[in-house]
Write a structure and sequence with these properties.
single chain, alpha+beta, Tumour Suppressor Smad4, 2 domains, six-stranded antiparallel beta sheet, 5 helices, 23% helix, globular, disordered N terminus
Length: 231
Amino acid sequence: MGPELTITPSCGQASLRSSPVAVLPGGTANVLALDLGLPRRVEGLLELVESGRVQPIDVADVDGHLSFLVTGVGFDGRVARALEARRRGPIGKLAWARAALDALRGYRPPALEVELDGERLEGAFGLVLASNIEHYGGFLKLAGGRIDDGFWQVYLFRDGSLAGLARAGLRGMLASLPGGPSCTMRAARSVRVHSREPVPVQVDGDARGTTPIELAVRDRRHHLLVPCATP
């Protein structure tokens, strides 16, 4: 861990002893930057270090891997696995599109069994997303919650067929998820997903094996530097 810093932001926040991190976005979708309004240029980063405020952020443990953004079980896990298989160098949006086409081959909707905070949910689900952000993949809008409230938002899709996922995706692009009977949302601190057949899993866009998985929100938050006024 780095040395503790004393930061006195200029936007009226009291001093806070912490170990904050200033992030310069350089990914494909930069969903965390969209959520927090992080600058994309070095000049903005330097201004952030000088006058930003400290924002706590919840972090989840997913079978030994840290997750800051979204953990998904189902079709998006297939896409991440296909991307990993064909990856050659830096990842761009075209690479994700090609991986999505690969993931369509042989796809069958899974039957996922879910437990939230120890409660077994009735029925089976075709896709499960446990998210701490609002912008998913750079093009879908999730209803979201507070990024520092100790809970993650779990989006539960009953219909995992390609038609059902397409309808949910369209709603996510035009409005936000959840919506309608096919997608509901619950806040939770722990999530367990298992299935009779192995189903691919992705953690923050990286392929992380198959079900079963267990996600647990950590008690200790991380800290980021963000602009004084965030979206």
